[in-house]
Write a structure and sequence with these properties.
One of its GO terms (molecular function) is protein-glycine ligase activity, elongating. By secondary structure, the protein is an alpha+beta fold. It folds into three domains: about 250 residues, no CATH class; about 120 residues, no CATH class; about 70 residues, Dna Ligase, domain 1 (2-Layer Sandwich), CATH 3.30.1490. The chain is about 40% helix and about 20% strand. The chain is built from 18 helices and 17 strands. Strands 1, 2, 3, 4, 11, 12, 13, 14, 15, 16 and 17 form an eleven-stranded mixed beta sheet that branches. It has a four-stranded antiparallel beta sheet with strand order 7-10-8-9, sandwiched between helices.
Length: about 525
């Protein structure tokens, strides 16, 4: 039985809409919404849900927030509407903004009107310019002046609001001083320290150093200390020191390794290396090309026995919402919170074969799968699943006795709880790099990728600072739209709660996100780890 993905010359055909091998038939009932006051439900009560993700009903989920914080929401400003994250998810973001009652300020029109006024005032000066260079300089000066005037106007509007009011800014406009945003919630995707943490080699070093430090510790169900070794693979930088130690490790541990660029994405610069004696740095250099610099690569152990679905390799993309909060009345007090969303499942378009040289067999991201050309267009819907499709597939195969040997309810009760615990551990370990010191409340969204092997061990593949928001499949469109609607609502509620001195726990607007770290209560992460790691 091959399920809905029938093999055809090594490829796939589009799964039928009424397939019962992946899609639940009939679909499971939606869970009860978690619309309760903060703290009314403990985290473990979510385990009884019948599905891992459900459509985010923004209107219903925002209504309780409006009742609790009536009249507390101010302006919504899209400071840079051309930003990729905002442009790709504009409809979902604006839907939640509308239901929350933010007053939308068209910053682009404000700036354009000021630009027009300045252009009219400088028209004679531009026409009288002796050269094209002078005319261009005059035009640039007018544009600069318009940006400054628009920023000053926005700062005035924000400062005129009561101090208890929270405004939402999607990317700080140019020329606007951060100190004017003390009463704002800001989405800031570009953050230099987090770029450092997303570097694959830097992440390995951060996790290693954190495990060796004294302070807060976490323990699994058996009482053993939990650290990064439970969810990472062997990682080394062949271009830095310790080369002889690396060669000894490769000689003692033969098998397949992956050479990746430390800071690349989209499957660019990935090479497979089979370690077999005698190994040498020259062989690694030859693998990536003589002109490439080894110190810009990491060597990572490849999972040679991955858990397969429909004979194909898969990994998990989850979303990590990180929120840094400050309060104008408490300048030295900063809160740090992290929430994890189940995201979606990335599936290869080709049947798995360990000795295959086809990158579409080994790497599941959409940029690699799209290299299949016309074949990809025929099967692209099968390359992304929702978490509940994965759960239904494994459960059906378990009952039929012809699938992976997973326990009953493994996806809901173990897999995604372990994924959430790992995401929380990353948020805790990388706090110096992910937290913001800016005035106001700042949130960002990251995209960790994780993989599962045949022994049901979950491993971190990489930590993406700028996750892709392309919606070229139904699962991507569903997952991303729901995630962004919920992320805006949760960030708003958590910011208001923190500013009022309330606990940021069990947000009333949460449905698919779960809290994985809280600076107010670090035991949240400890409890999550001990509940899902034996």
């Amino acid at each position: 039985m091959t399920g809905p993905h029938e093999e055809d010359s090594g490829g796939l055909v589009m799964r039928p809409a009424n397939s019962d091998a992946i899609l639940p038939t009939p679909p499971p009932p939606l869970p009860q919404s978690k619309l309760t006051t903060a703290g009314d439900k403990a985290m473990e009560e979510a385990d009884g849900r019948k599905v891992l993700t459900s459509p985010y009903l923004a209107e219903a989920c925002c209504s309780r927030l409006l009742n609790q914080f009536s009249g507390r929401l101010g302006l919504f400003v899209a400071g840079r509407p051309r930003n990729y994250a905002f442009r790709a998810n504009r409809n979902a973001i604006m839907e939640t903004v509308s239901h929350l009652g933010y007053r939308v300020l068209d910053y682009s029109s404000l700036r354009e009107n000021l630009q027009l006024q300045l252009d009219n005032g400088d028209l004679e000066k531009t026409e009288a310019a002796a050269t094209e260079t002078e005319a261009a300089a005059t035009e640039a000066a007018a544009t600069e002046a318009a940006a400054e005037a628009a920023a000053a106007s926005l700062a005035s509007k924000i400062s005129s609001l009561p101090e208890t009011t929270l405004s939402l800014v999607f990317l700080k406009p140019q020329k606007l001083d951060w100190n004017c945003l003390g009463n704002c919630l800001i989405f800031e995707p570009y953050h230099q320290p987090s770029l450092f943490a997303s570097d694959k080699w830097n992440m390995a070093r951060i996790l290693s150093r954190k495990a060796g430090q004294s302070g807060l510790k976490f323990f699994d169900a058996s009482g053993a200390e939990f650290n990064y070794r439970r969810f990472t693979m062997y990682t080394a930088n062949p271009g830095l020191g310790g080369r002889q130690q690396l060669i000894r490790h490769l000689d003692a541990n033969p098998g397949v390794y992956v050479l990746k660029r430390t800071n690349s994405s989209q499957g660019i610069g990935i090479h497979m290396y089979r370690a077999q004696q005698p190994n040498s740095i020259d062989l690694l250099q030859r693998c990536i090309g003589q002109k490439a610099r080894l110190q810009r690569y990491v060597l990572q152990k490849y999972i040679e026995r991955p858990l397969l679905v429909d004979k194909r390799k898969f990994d998990l993309r989850v979303y990590l919402l990180v929120l840094s909060c400050s309060c104008p009345g408490r300048p030295g007090d900063r809160g740090y919170f992290a929430f994890c969303h189940p995201g979606y499942v990335k599936v290869s378009s080709r049947a798995y074969a360990g000795d295959s040289r086809d990158p579409r067999v080994h790497f599941t991201n959409q940029w690699v799968q799209r290299r299949g050309g016309r074949q990809y267009e025929c099967v692209k819907e099968a390359t992304t699943w929702l978490p509940d499709e994965l759960d239904a597939y494994l459960e059906r195969r378990r009952r039929n006795g012809n699938g992976p040997a997973v326990p009953e309810g493994w996806c809901r009760q173990k897999l995604y709880r372990q994924v959430a615990a790992i995401a929380g551990y990353l948020a805790w370990s990388c706090r110096p790099y992910l937290a913001s010191r800016r005035p106001g409340c700042v949130f960002r969204i990251y995209g960790p990728d994780l993989i599962v092997d045949e022994d049901l061990r979950v491993s971190l593949l990489e930590f993406n600072c700028f996750p892709c928001y392309a919606k070229n499949t139904m699962a991507l469109s569903t997952s991303l739209g729901s995630m962004w609607r919920e992320a805006v609502a949760i960030a708003t509620e958590a910011s208001l709660r923190y500013r009022d001195g309330l606990p940021v726990a069990a947000p009333t607007t949460a449905r698919n996100f779960c809290q994985v770290f809280s600076s107010q209560n670090p035991a949240v992460l400890g409890k999550l780890i001990s509940s899902c790691f034996p």
